[in-house]
Write a structure and sequence with these properties.
This protein is an alpha+beta fold and about 160 residues long. It has one domain: Gcn5-related N-acetyltransferase (GNAT) (Aminopeptidase). The chain contains 4 helices and 8 strands. The protein is globular and about 40 Å long. The two termini are about 20 Å apart.
Length: about 160
């Protein structure tokens, strides 16, 4: 089983000790507000979806902190051969500061050390954050026209880890 229980992972380098990924603190109000500020209404998780997601032990929510301030989340679903990145959100005031790439690099490092073979994700074609995935080595595997409720295309991406 792949768990991030009591996981606190810091990025080494310029942001050392300022960026951490931690276990979800069960602050559902904060998480749902982050979802609403990050995604279209139809794409953001609501209370019922969050409760269902948390009830499944293969699902995990991780908090992203910058200088001990909650600035985002990573939502993951584990299966035996891969991890699916359900969502990756950063508060609007902390976007465009290169934090997304650093947090994603931290996550990828952690998954590689856990011998996860691959991580998959999807991102809106119109989302500028898709460049963050590309810079971290994700490859496009499929484009699905009209995937989102507003008709926008989804890009399905994969990052495969070299065997340890």
């Amino acid at each position: 089983m792949y768990l991030f229980i009591n996981m606190s992972h810091s990025f080494q380098g310029t942001y050392a000790a300022m960026l951490t990924i931690e276990d979800y603190d069960q602050d559902d109000s904060w998480f749902l507000a982050l979802e609403r500020s990050s995604f279209n209404e139809s794409d953001a998780m609501d209370e019922m979806e969050l409760a269902e997601f948390k009830a499944d032990p293969s699902n995990h929510i991780l908090l992203l902190k910058y200088q001990d301030i909650k600035v985002g989340s990573i939502v993951l679903s584990y299966s035996p051969n891969e991890v699916y990145l359900e969502s990756f959100a950063i508060l609007p005031d902390y976007r465009s500061k290169s934090l997304g790439g650093k947090y994603l690099a931290m996550l990828l490092d952690r998954l590689k050390r856990e011998s996860i073979p691959k991580i998959t994700a999807h991102v809106r074609n119109d989302n500028p954050a898709k460049r963050v995935y590309e810079k971290q080595g994700f490859s496009l595997v499929n484009r699905v026209p009209g995937f989102y409720n507003d008709g926008e295309d989804a890009l399905f991406l994969v990052h495969e880890f070299a065997p340890n």
